[in-house]
């Protein structure tokens, strides 16, 4: 924003606050915090910050905030707005005793025109009531905060699970009841001086055509005219390359006469040979910069810059994605940076995004929430796609009043994020319940499709189908049966089945898969005391999220010799899980499998759960296993050991998966086969004249007798035409179970 058009007075700093746990201070006509502040004892609090991170760690309920500031002198051609970049969750605002309004939601900015109530050149008193409570019915929640409030990767009150993860009753002791609801003024607050005519919002929609050689740019601008009479408005638009060198486009000046109030204007223009936005492995993420200048009665009154990208994203009925007409296989994660987003900085986002890139990920699923603007900017710049959930997770109140409020939240959510080219899909609800699916989710789906017709949108994050999902289910049994045959979460080897069962599953798309593991010892000691760590206090481990019963079932005896031994067992199991599942599913690339999103990337708080990077950003062993399993050009092996007429034989099959959009010529594969005791029994070498772009290819299998041992091990290398090592990999070949032995938790086939 150019300085000559808008001036900001920051109101950040030390404010005063009063705790009102039971919401009593506004319970009578006096409203003490606003009109009788001297009767209360106010204490200091930092703004911006969640109050749990500003000295009020255990507080939930209502917090009253108060700030005093001196306003600049009044100017006849200027307006003044109190602006909040985000408040968590409900907020009500008074200025100098005048009630300004209310806002719901933790994610987006809001503002109030205070020109008529501001004491210019004098002291002003700003009071904000912020409400953030623990919901007494978490399966019928009244707040739309998604994964930032209610998620089993957050601090929750629950006993160790004894069966499968789906425990739909909040009165069940295994149900994850929330313990913390972040609250407070967690982003910047400022007084903004702006012209009486100014820009409210900009939305840019690129539409590609003529085989991607041309783009129509649709520019929608909302303008506010606060004058008492109409004004002549001129809008000038320029498009400049943002992160590359190229042509500058200037649109013809558009002129309008605008009545008082807010009006919207739509403009279009054509770009020839546009530079497209690509993921990092398919090309370069070209970004443009739109500069919009607004003139009123011949005077420049506002200017805004909007970064955008030109791309087309489509998803077919088999859940295969196409970016600018090019097929792309999704390799990604589930991500929620921190339950207290106020702790995240641009630098911490840069670290997380770089770790995604280093792990060869091209996509991140933002789990039922929105991150800060800086994260999306980094994804735009680095070429990482965003699978964007709306802020709805598990169950919600099924009343018309809540659904109407949720519609408003959804509209503002899409509006806020619309211009980011990195977003490739909207997901309306994560793991919704039967009553949500039939009511809330139908509304969300309709609203998102109405607001964004060019991106794919899905109704439910864990259900996939070759056609549209049903609009509703008449009975809970119908809903449960449908889930069993269309589930996209892939917990084979954690909640059910065994790791080696991965070869038998062929899901269309995987939105979650993973296992828990214990963080490194140094990280554990930062949030658990030594007495609980070792000897192991299993009850304490459970309070930090560790599913000890699953650990015992999947990894055997809990009798370990040391804490490091326990850590290694869980982390090594997680490594094996990700290696086996990721490679097995990548070998089925486009054979109904369109992509994989591991669950999950980083701890959102100190805990023991499914992350591959702990809260202190220390990678577990599985992080490096994921980075290897996600290499775009990948050598892989599979096989089987069988008993037949010729005795015991092992079969080994080499594979090459290429996720790049370029072909490779004259490569070479070498591999060796060892018995369980380390005896070398065979070695092979063969040339690969052509590795086709975006392909998966198997090669001639090797069958050899094995007289002893239960497994054989394959180690192999892929080298280019110059003999340079591209990658090396290994595989333990075991006897595979029969299809009848593969466990299915829903007693119906999951694309076997």
UniProtKB/TrEMBL annotation:
Transmembrane segments: none annotated. It comes from the Bacteria. InterPro entries: Beta-gal/glucu_dom_sf, Beta-mannosidase-like_N2, Galactose-bd-like_sf, GH, GH2_Domain-Containing, Glyco_hydro_2_cat, Ig-like_fold, Ig-like_GH2. Residues 197-311 form the Glycoside hydrolase family 2 immunoglobulin-like beta-sandwich domain. Signal peptide: none annotated. GO terms for molecular function: hydrolase activity, hydrolyzing O-glycosyl compounds. This is Uncharacterized protein. It comes from Fictibacillus enclensis.
């Amino acid at each position: 924003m150019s300085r000559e058009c808008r001036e900001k007075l920051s109101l950040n700093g030390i404010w005063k606050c009063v705790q009102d746990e039971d919401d009593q201070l506004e319970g009578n006509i006096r409203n003490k915090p606003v009109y009788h502040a001297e009767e209360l004892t106010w204490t200091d609090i930092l703004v911006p910050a969640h109050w749990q991170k500003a000295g009020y760690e255990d507080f939930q309920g209502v917090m009253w905030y108060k700030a005093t500031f001196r306003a600049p002198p009044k100017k006849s051609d200027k307006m003044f707005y109190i602006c909040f970049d985000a408040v968590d969750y409900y907020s009500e605002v008074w200025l100098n005793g005048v009630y300004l309004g209310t806002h719901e939601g933790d994610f987006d900015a809001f503002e109030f025109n205070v020109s008529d109530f501001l004491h210019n050149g004098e002291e002003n008193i700003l009071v904000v009531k912020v409400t953030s409570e623990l919901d007494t019915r978490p399966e019928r929640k009244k707040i739309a905060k998604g994964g930032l409030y209610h998620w089993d990767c957050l601090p929750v009150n629950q006993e160790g699970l004894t069966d499968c993860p789906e425990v739909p009753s909040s009165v069940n002791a295994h149900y994850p009841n929330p313990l913390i609801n972040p609250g407070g003024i967690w982003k910047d607050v400022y007084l903004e001086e702006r012209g009486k005519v100014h820009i409210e919002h900009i939305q840019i929609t690129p539409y590609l055509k003529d085989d991607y050689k041309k783009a129509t740019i649709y520019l929608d601008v909302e303008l506010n005219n606060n004058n008492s009479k109409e004004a002549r408005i001129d809008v000038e638009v320029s498009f400049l390359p943002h992160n590359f060198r190229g042509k500058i486009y200037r649109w013809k000046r558009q002129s309008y006469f605008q009545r008082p109030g807010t009006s919207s204007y739509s403009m279009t223009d054509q770009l020839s040979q546009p530079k497209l936005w690509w993921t990092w492995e398919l090309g370069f993420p070209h970004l443009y910069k739109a500069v919009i200048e607004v003139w009123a009665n011949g005077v420049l009154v506002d200017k805004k810059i909007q970064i955008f990208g030109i791309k087309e994203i489509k998803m077919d009925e088999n859940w295969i994605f196409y970016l600018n007409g090019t097929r792309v296989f999704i390799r990604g994660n589930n991500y929620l940076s921190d339950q207290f987003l106020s702790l995240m900085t641009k630098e911490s986002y840069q670290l997380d995004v770089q770790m995604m890139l280093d792990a060869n990920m091209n996509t991140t699923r933002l789990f039922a929430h929105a991150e800060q603007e800086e994260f999306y900017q980094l994804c735009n710049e680095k070429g990482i796609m965003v699978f964007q959930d709306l802020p709805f997770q598990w169950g919600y109140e099924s009343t018309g009043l809540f659904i109407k409020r949720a519609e408003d939240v959804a509209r503002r959510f899409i509006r806020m994020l619309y211009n980011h080219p990195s977003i490739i899909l909207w997901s309306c609800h994560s793991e919704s319940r039967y009553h949500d699916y039939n009511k809330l989710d139908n509304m969300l789906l309709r609203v998102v499709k109405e607001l964004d017709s060019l991106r794919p949108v899905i109704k439910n994050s864990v259900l996939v189908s070759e056609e549209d999902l049903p609009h509703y289910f008449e009975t809970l049994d119908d809903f449960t049966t449908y889930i069993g045959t269309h589930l996209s979460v892939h917990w084979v080897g954690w909640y059910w089945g065994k790791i080696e069962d991965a070869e038998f599953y062929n899901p269309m798309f995987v939105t979650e898969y993973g296992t828990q593991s214990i963080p490194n010892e140094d990280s554990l000691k930062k949030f658990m005391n030594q007495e609980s760590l070792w000897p192991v206090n299993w009850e304490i481990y459970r309070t930090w999220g560790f599913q000890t019963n699953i650990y015992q079932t999947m990894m055997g005896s809990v009798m370990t010799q040391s804490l490091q031994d326990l850590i290694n067992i869980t982390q090594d199991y997680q490594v094996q899980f990700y290696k086996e599942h990721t490679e097995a599913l990548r070998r089925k690339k486009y054979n109904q499998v369109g992509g994989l999103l591991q669950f999950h990337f980083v701890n959102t708080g100190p805990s023991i759960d499914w992350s591959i990077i702990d809260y202190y950003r220390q990678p577990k062993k599985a992080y490096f296993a994921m980075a290897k399993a996600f290499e775009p050009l990948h050598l892989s092996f599979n096989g089987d050991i069988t008993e037949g007429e010729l005795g015991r034989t092992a079969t080994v099959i080499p594979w090459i998966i290429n996720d790049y959009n370029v072909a490779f010529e004259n490569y070479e594969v070498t591999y060796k086969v060892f018995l369980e005791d380390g005896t070398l029994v065979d070695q092979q070498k063969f040339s690969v004249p052509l590795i086709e772009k975006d392909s998966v290819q198997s090669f001639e299998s090797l069958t050899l007798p094995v007289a002893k041992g239960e497994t054989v091990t394959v180690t192999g290398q892929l080298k280019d035409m110059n003999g340079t090592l591209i990658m090396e990999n290994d595989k333990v070949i075991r006897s595979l179970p029969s299809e009848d032995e593969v466990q299915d938790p829903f007693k119906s086939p999951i694309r076997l």
